[in-house]
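Q: Structure tokens for this one, please.
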Amino acid sequence: MKSNIPQNPDKFRCPWCLGFGQYVAYHDEEWGVPVFDDRVHFEFLILESAQAGLSWATILKKREGYRKAFADFDYKVVADLPDSYVAELLQDPSIIRNRLKIEAAINNANRFMEIQSEFGSFSNYIWDFVNGKVIDRQLKSLAHAPATTTESDKLAKDLKKRGFKFLGSTTIYAHMQATGLVNDHLVDCFRYEEVRKLAI
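A: Here is the predicted structure, written as tokens:
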């Protein structure tokens, strides 16, 4: 996406976020902040699985539609959504109207709760893949940012084994970036130090 928002020399941001206002707010307020709340993890899993083949900007624009359609990302409610509701969602322009992705969200809600039962929380489970500590790559350029890592490969493989859908390694690495398991803000970005101070 071509940037239409200029860099502020006094407040440098990761260049990827400069496409439109929602991107900037997401970058400044959420991206990279360590998440330990299972409901927030589930929200990002739904949004990221919906992104497959699309831009994150498209998903952010539909985020509130997803919030309404999926019970404010309450995985207990989503896990029990009936087929009749899936049919309704396929007519809802506020989300991505893809049956496989909608059904994956319901499936993943059930698998999500199975992990909670086994590990006490989804947060406990996912943070174990980084040994409970934020990975700080100290990136100097977007060109150095990986699309997948050993950690995301292992996590995606384990999620697939547990029955999750639409959550491959690239998608999972995006989840790790978004929820702060990895700090991939560029070192020159004003948020880099702010997020680093939040690390475990």
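A few notes: The chain has a mean pLDDT of 94. Residues 99-119 form the longest helix (21 residues).
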